[in-house]
Amino acid sequence: MKAMVVDDERDVELLFRQYFRKEIQQNRIEFIFAFSGEDALEKLQNMGQPPEVMVILSDINMPGMNGLDLLKAVKRTFPTIKVSMITAYSNQYYKDAMSAGADNFYTKPLDFTTLKKELFGGAANA
Ligand SMILES: [Mg+2]
User: Fold this and answer.
1) CA distance 53 to 40
2) Ligand 1 centroid vs 90 CA: distance in angstroms?
3) How remote is the CA of residue 50 from the centroid of ligand 1, in Å?
4) What domains can you pick out in the chain, each with its CATH number?
5) Angle 96-86-89 (CA atoms, 0-180°, nearest 5)?
6) Coil, helix or strand for 53?
7) CA within 20 to 30 Å of 25's CA: 7, 15, 32, 116, which one?
8) How far is the CA of 57 from the centre of ligand 1 (A)?
C-alpha cells in the first residue's frame, strides 16, 4: 500500500519512518512524503492515472495551500483516495474537515497505534 504524508514540518518524515520501520521493511506500506499542499498535488499528478496512493495523511496548517484546500482538491481530482487530516488544532478544524469530506481526523501528537489500525484494518502489531 502506498500512503502519502503531507506536512511542512520535515521531522514528521523521520517520525513515520521510525514508527513504521517494521511495516516498511516488510513492504506492507510505502510512504511518499510531501512538504506542502502544492508539492502533494504535483507528486500525485506525476504518478499516472489513477495515482497508486491509497491514503493521504495531511497536516492542516501549512504555508501556501493548507490541508483543507488540499483535501478539497484531492477529493475533486482523485475521488478514490482517502484523505485524513492531522492537526494540533482539532476544535478549530474538525467541522470544516468533515464537511470537506475528510475520511478521518487525527490530533497531534499522533497516536501511531490508532493510525496503524486504520491503515492496516485492525491488525495493529504495534
Ligand atoms: Mg504545519
Assistant:
1) 11
2) 13
3) 27
4) 2-113 (3.40.50.2300)
5) 65
6) strand
7) 7
8) 12
* Alpha-carbon gap, residue 124 to 62, rounded angstroms: 29
Question: 59 alpha carbon to ligand 1 midpoint, in Å?
Answer: 6
Q: Cell triple for residue 108?
A: 497531534
Q: Is the pTM of this model over 0.90?
A: yes
Give the three cell numbers for residue 90. Answer: 482539532
d(CA 36, CA 19): 22
The per-residue pLDDT for range 39-87, each reduced to its tens digit, is 999 999 999 888 999 999 999 999 999 999 999 999 999 999 999 999 9
* In the block, residue with C-alpha cell 502489531: 125
Q: Give the β-pairing of 30-34 and 104-107.
A: unpaired
Beta carbons within 10 angstroms of residue 105's beta carbon:
15
Cα dihedral angle (77, 49, 83, 121), rounded to 10 degrees? 150
Let me know how long the chain is.
126
